[in-house]
Design brief:
With 169 residues, the chain is of the alpha/beta class. Helix content is 46%, strand content 17%.
Length: 169
Amino acid sequence: MMIDIAITNRQNNLSINADLLANACRRILAGDGHVAAAISLAVVDDAEMHDLNRAHLDHDYPTDVLSFPLSDPGSPLSGEVIVSADTAIKNASEYGNLAEEELLLYVVHGVLHLVGLGDKSPADSKKMRQAEAYWLAELGVPGERVARLVYIDEGVDMEQLTSEGEPTR
Protein backbone atom coordinates (compact mmCIF):
# COMPACT_ATOMS: atom_id res chain seq x y z
CA MET A 1 0.00 0.00 0.00
CA MET A 2 1.27 3.42 -0.88
CA ILE A 3 0.27 6.91 -1.85
CA ASP A 4 1.02 7.35 -5.55
CA ILE A 5 1.21 10.88 -6.96
CA ALA A 6 1.61 11.34 -10.73
CA ILE A 7 2.51 14.88 -11.79
CA THR A 8 2.16 16.20 -15.32
CA ASN A 9 3.40 19.69 -16.22
CA ARG A 10 1.62 20.92 -19.38
CA GLN A 11 2.65 24.58 -19.26
CA ASN A 12 5.84 26.60 -19.73
CA ASN A 13 5.16 29.83 -17.83
CA LEU A 14 6.08 28.79 -14.29
CA SER A 15 8.85 26.51 -13.10
CA ILE A 16 7.38 23.93 -10.74
CA ASN A 17 8.89 22.01 -7.86
CA ALA A 18 7.35 18.58 -8.53
CA ASP A 19 8.83 17.11 -5.33
CA LEU A 20 7.22 19.82 -3.19
CA LEU A 21 3.84 19.41 -4.91
CA ALA A 22 3.94 15.60 -4.56
CA ASN A 23 4.99 15.92 -0.91
CA ALA A 24 2.08 18.30 -0.28
CA CYS A 25 -0.36 15.76 -1.71
CA ARG A 26 1.13 12.89 0.29
CA ARG A 27 1.19 14.78 3.58
CA ILE A 28 -2.44 15.92 3.28
CA LEU A 29 -3.60 12.42 2.33
CA ALA A 30 -1.60 10.80 5.15
CA GLY A 31 -2.84 13.48 7.55
CA ASP A 32 -6.38 12.49 6.62
CA GLY A 33 -5.60 8.85 7.41
CA HIS A 34 -5.05 7.51 3.89
CA VAL A 35 -2.38 4.82 3.59
CA ALA A 36 -3.19 4.07 -0.05
CA ALA A 37 -4.21 6.58 -2.71
CA ALA A 38 -3.59 7.47 -6.32
CA ILE A 39 -3.68 11.12 -7.30
CA SER A 40 -3.01 12.63 -10.69
CA LEU A 41 -1.87 16.26 -10.50
CA ALA A 42 -1.71 18.31 -13.69
CA VAL A 43 -0.26 21.81 -13.94
CA VAL A 44 -1.78 23.52 -16.98
CA ASP A 45 -2.09 26.96 -18.59
CA ASP A 46 -5.23 29.12 -18.58
CA ALA A 47 -6.28 28.04 -22.09
CA GLU A 48 -6.41 24.38 -21.07
CA MET A 49 -8.00 25.22 -17.71
CA HIS A 50 -10.68 27.26 -19.51
CA ASP A 51 -11.47 24.28 -21.76
CA LEU A 52 -11.65 21.90 -18.78
CA ASN A 53 -13.79 24.27 -16.72
CA ARG A 54 -16.21 24.67 -19.63
CA ALA A 55 -16.34 20.93 -20.37
CA HIS A 56 -16.81 19.73 -16.78
CA LEU A 57 -18.58 22.56 -14.95
CA ASP A 58 -20.09 24.59 -17.81
CA HIS A 59 -18.14 27.66 -16.62
CA ASP A 60 -16.84 29.72 -19.53
CA TYR A 61 -13.64 31.02 -17.91
CA PRO A 62 -10.36 29.68 -16.55
CA THR A 63 -10.15 28.92 -12.83
CA ASP A 64 -7.40 28.25 -10.31
CA VAL A 65 -8.07 24.59 -9.46
CA LEU A 66 -10.35 21.73 -10.40
CA SER A 67 -10.57 18.48 -8.45
CA PHE A 68 -12.29 15.27 -9.43
CA PRO A 69 -12.72 12.42 -6.96
CA LEU A 70 -12.64 9.14 -8.88
CA SER A 71 -12.80 6.41 -6.23
CA ASP A 72 -15.79 4.40 -5.12
CA PRO A 73 -16.78 4.39 -1.44
CA GLY A 74 -14.74 1.86 0.48
CA SER A 75 -11.89 1.72 -2.03
CA PRO A 76 -8.58 3.61 -1.77
CA LEU A 77 -8.85 7.27 -2.61
CA SER A 78 -8.17 8.21 -6.21
CA GLY A 79 -8.68 11.50 -7.95
CA GLU A 80 -7.41 14.22 -10.20
CA VAL A 81 -6.31 17.74 -9.27
CA ILE A 82 -5.69 20.26 -12.05
CA VAL A 83 -4.13 23.64 -11.28
CA SER A 84 -3.48 26.68 -13.48
CA ALA A 85 0.04 28.11 -13.44
CA ASP A 86 -1.15 31.18 -15.39
CA THR A 87 -3.79 31.97 -12.77
CA ALA A 88 -1.18 31.46 -10.03
CA ILE A 89 1.14 33.95 -11.75
CA LYS A 90 -1.66 36.53 -12.19
CA ASN A 91 -3.04 36.18 -8.67
CA ALA A 92 0.41 36.21 -7.08
CA SER A 93 1.23 39.44 -8.87
CA GLU A 94 -2.09 41.01 -7.89
CA TYR A 95 -1.92 40.02 -4.21
CA GLY A 96 1.83 40.30 -3.63
CA ASN A 97 2.48 36.56 -3.28
CA LEU A 98 5.07 34.24 -4.79
CA ALA A 99 3.65 32.41 -7.82
CA GLU A 100 5.11 29.09 -6.60
CA GLU A 101 3.31 29.48 -3.26
CA GLU A 102 0.08 30.51 -4.98
CA LEU A 103 0.30 27.30 -7.06
CA LEU A 104 0.99 25.30 -3.89
CA LEU A 105 -2.17 26.81 -2.36
CA TYR A 106 -4.18 25.54 -5.36
CA VAL A 107 -2.73 22.05 -4.96
CA VAL A 108 -3.52 22.05 -1.23
CA HIS A 109 -7.07 23.29 -1.95
CA GLY A 110 -7.68 20.62 -4.59
CA VAL A 111 -6.42 17.77 -2.39
CA LEU A 112 -8.48 19.03 0.56
CA HIS A 113 -11.53 18.76 -1.70
CA LEU A 114 -10.55 15.16 -2.51
CA VAL A 115 -10.42 14.27 1.20
CA GLY A 116 -13.88 15.73 1.75
CA LEU A 117 -13.58 19.39 2.66
CA GLY A 118 -16.05 21.68 0.94
CA ASP A 119 -16.25 25.43 0.49
CA LYS A 120 -19.80 26.19 -0.64
CA SER A 121 -21.24 27.36 2.71
CA PRO A 122 -19.66 30.10 4.85
CA ALA A 123 -18.88 27.56 7.61
CA ASP A 124 -17.30 25.11 5.14
CA SER A 125 -15.37 27.92 3.46
CA LYS A 126 -13.96 29.04 6.83
CA LYS A 127 -12.93 25.47 7.63
CA MET A 128 -11.30 25.13 4.18
CA ARG A 129 -9.31 28.37 4.60
CA GLN A 130 -8.09 27.30 8.01
CA ALA A 131 -7.04 23.87 6.70
CA GLU A 132 -5.23 25.55 3.79
CA ALA A 133 -3.37 27.79 6.23
CA TYR A 134 -2.42 24.80 8.39
CA TRP A 135 -1.03 22.79 5.48
CA LEU A 136 0.82 25.71 3.89
CA ALA A 137 2.54 26.35 7.23
CA GLU A 138 3.29 22.61 7.61
CA LEU A 139 4.85 22.67 4.14
CA GLY A 140 7.22 25.47 5.13
CA VAL A 141 5.49 28.64 3.94
CA PRO A 142 6.29 31.37 6.49
CA GLY A 143 3.33 32.56 8.59
CA GLU A 144 3.18 36.09 7.21
CA ARG A 145 3.02 34.71 3.66
CA VAL A 146 0.39 32.12 4.65
CA ALA A 147 -1.76 34.96 5.99
CA ARG A 148 -1.49 36.74 2.61
CA LEU A 149 -2.21 33.59 0.60
CA VAL A 150 -5.22 32.42 2.62
CA TYR A 151 -8.15 34.57 3.62
CA ILE A 152 -8.67 33.48 7.21
CA ASP A 153 -10.76 35.38 9.73
CA GLU A 154 -9.25 38.08 11.89
CA GLY A 155 -8.32 36.85 15.32
CA VAL A 156 -7.56 33.25 14.29
CA ASP A 157 -4.33 32.17 15.95
CA MET A 158 -2.19 30.59 13.21
CA GLU A 159 -0.53 28.38 15.85
CA GLN A 160 -3.91 26.87 16.79
CA LEU A 161 -4.88 25.58 13.34
CA THR A 162 -5.15 21.85 12.66
CA SER A 163 -5.27 19.78 9.48
CA GLU A 164 -9.08 19.62 9.66
CA GLY A 165 -9.30 23.39 9.73
CA GLU A 166 -10.80 23.76 13.18
CA PRO A 167 -8.70 25.60 15.76
CA THR A 168 -7.49 23.29 18.52
CA ARG A 169 -9.29 23.62 21.81
